[in-house]
Amino acid sequence: MNLQDFRCIGVSLLVAVGSVSLGLSAAEPTVAQGANTAELKTVDAVIQRFVEAIGGETAVRKLTQRTTKGSLELQQQGVSVELKVESKAPNKRLTTIILPGGAGELATGFDGTAAWRSIPVQGVVDLTGDEARSTKEESNFWEVVDFKSAYSKLELKGITKVAGAECYLIEATPAGGKTQKVYFSKQNGLIVRRDSEAPTLTGSMAPTETYFEDYRTVDGMKMAFKMRRTLPEDFAFTFVTSEVNHATPIADSRFKKPETK
After folding, report:
1. Which of 103, 109, 138, 191 is the most exposed place for a label (fewest CB within 10 A)?
2. In a domain, 18, yes or no
3. Residue 172 domain boundaries
4. Does the pLDDT of residue 199 top 70, yes or no?
């Protein structure tokens, strides 16, 4: 699964399990200053190394659609669900969670213009405000090679540690959005963690942390096959990818909001 495919799954799971907690008590990494200043690279250098680490811009842009399948494990709740993400360049995406026990499917989509969500029993709703903005941002198919255009401000803050390993920390701020923290491994250049905010059921935004692990190369592009996300009040889940398909065509109609019956 690609990075942006994962960023909006949290709010869908909150809907699925009925969680609306807002607090978060994760430890904040300490950024080294002073003595480490000489080691810091420029934003351009860190991002360029990341692009090269995942296969290079040419290889990434050759891919124009992706279907990712896997399983979501909610450890605290003892729940496992199937998940499928269909995405298409430049900015279309459909995330579908298959609920257990035949309870139906929970879907969140962006058709390039409008964002929507389909919830069993409740029906289809248009997303607005922060939810719509967040969904739009996350639908950028080539975001991993479009950092400069995807964010209005990028700032290298220093060197910090994630799970004991040194990382370059870049603060990335999209136009009209909240600043995100992106951690790039100093050893291999890959993104290992991303701190951002996701909308809750009450319409407010809550902080989240996402960890990217088990990178593998598929069709010339390296992507994380295991991702862990923490959400408010110790709510957490793990996504493990089982299949990535870049060949099967995806019709634009897949991303359109379903008609209300």
Report:
1. 103
2. no
3. 3-13+28-242
4. no
Give how far Cα 256 sits from Cα of 120, 123, 182, Å.
17, 15, 31
The answer for residues whose C-beta is within 8 angstroms of residue 155's C-beta and 6 or more apart is 43, 170, 171
Q: Does residue 90 have a cis peptide bond before it, meaning omega lies within 30 degrees of 0?
A: yes
Write phi, then psi, for 250 (nearest 5 degrees): -120, 120
Helices (H), the chain: 3-6, 9-17, 43-53, 57-62, 129-138, 147-150
Could you tell me if 97 and 16 are in contact, meaning their C-beta atoms sit under 8 angstroms apart? yes
Q: Tokens 């929970």 — which residue?
A: 106
pLDDT more than 90, % of the chain: 61
Residue listed under structure tokens 């029993």: 121
Q: Is residue 113 part of a domain?
A: yes
CA proximity to 249, closest of 85, 110, 83, 67: 67
Coil vs helix vs strand at 163: coil
pTM above 0.70, yes or no: yes
Encoded tokens for 255: 């991303």
Contact 89, 142 (CB under 8 A): yes
CA nearest neighbour of 180 among 201, 161, 203, 157: 157
21 within a domain of the structure (yes/no): no
Residue 38 has pLDDT above 70, yes or no: no
Is position 20 within any domain? no
Question: What gap in Å lies between CA 106 and CA 102, rounded to an integer?
Answer: 12
CATH number at residue 66: 2.50.20.10
**Which pLDDT belongs to residue 19?**
28
- Cα separation, 24 vs 195, in Å, equals 12
Total domain count, the chain? 1
Pairing of strands 65-74, 180-185: unpaired
